[in-house]
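Bug: token stream looks shifted between consecutive jobs. Job 1:
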Amino acid sequence: ANPRFVSLEEGDYRLRNGSPGINAGTDASGLVGTDIAGNPRPSHGAWKLGAHEYLQQGGSFRVLKWQERR
């Protein structure tokens, strides 16, 4: 099946909407809490396949990242 990467040619292996890899992984929340880009993985339920967690564009939520305070 076509994994529907954002841009295979440019090395962008994030999953696009409609990818068969979305919610196809196994819950491993006890092992790691974020993806390769620092985005949170779900605490329970199916993960996306690959190093990047699929983040649906749009919606009514915000992702906040903590920065070290100097």
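Job 2, same session, no restart:
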Amino acid sequence: MSYEIPESSRPIPHSELSSDLNETFVELVFKLYELDQKHEDLESIRAKAIADLHQSLQKEVKAHPLLAQVTLNGFTLLDIVCQKVGSAGQETIRFLIEANPHALVHRQSDDVATPLHFLAGSGWASDWLLWIVERYPWVFQHEACQQFPPHLELMSSYVTGRCELETVRRFYELYPKGLRERNESSTVGYPLSASLRGTEEPDADFFIWMARQYPAAVYFELTQVPTVLQFVCFLLASTKCTPNMARICRFLISEHPDTVRQLVTGFGYLPIHMLAPQCHRPLVQEMVILLLKAYPECLQQVNGTNLSSFAFILEVKPLVLEELEIDQEISLLGDLSANVRKVIVSPANHFASESTGNGSVANVSLLESVSEVFCSWADLQVKKLNEQRKRLQEQIMEMCRRFETDDVSEASADVVDWEAETESEDSEDSHLFDDEDDD
């Protein structure tokens, strides 16, 4: 797959055409606009008109390939067909792309979307991006696409239910560089964090796959913008308290433990702050316990809400710390036993017993006896510690059940109110947890 951008076909203003060719071009454009105005409510008539127009347009462009480069008020035929005919004109769209693929990234001005961006943001055109990236991967390296990656529109379509999971995953398999691209002027970030910004929650397998393809995206952060783990915790505590979202949260905590300590720059909130007010939910309780295990010192965080003010956290923390101590002791005993066994079975030890006198043999025999006694004692201690840990876990489970309540109130009522925390005039920064993509 080549990302090298071929020599561009220069857009040609229609005024530079000969009078006859200009008349042909303007007539095609007029028919496209007329189609949009006259037939929008008459489906059968519109379908016939679109088919006829496709034949006319195809005939003229084949006769005069230059027409695929011509612009009227800065718009190419591909621009106009995408906007005025839409999903009904897919045959024409394909023909025009093949006639001049550079038209995919042509834009009238810096603040106007390209046809590629239009297709990426249209639910009906999601599969088109697969076709385009397989045939013209270089378009995604164009300046217009590097500045505003169109595949983020595809991700937005996925998380708003307008695009299938397999389509968006297949796109990033074909164009893995896309996972490293983001809109520099937006707070949405990389595709990984963009997958959280919608009415639909991302598939956990897909999220984990993206995170493993480009781990740096997990740590994306901006001033007054929640980190990836913080946003996941926010969703888990508000609108998406599901096993799927909990699996994403577990993955981030276990494979990217540094994210547990990430603060929102300018606020001082930790991921656990997102969950603390909703500890009546079993999944939230589980994540809070995992966060406490990963960062026991979080209660000492002076910024943000005082975590000690939440009864669940206050009661569960001593139990969590005790379990951590037990785990550390079990790990230590296991390491010591393994090291002792290594010494006994080491080749150097056997060589010493075979090549020296009876005294050395006796010493080796004594060492073996001592190691056997120690390992037996260590195994017994580990067994006792495991039993102690089991009782402790049962105690934690009982405490969790005691805090469970019917979730009858608004899910996000007590979750950190980010909008109240900032006076920013930037709408993207003042609505940090909008479900919809802010692009």
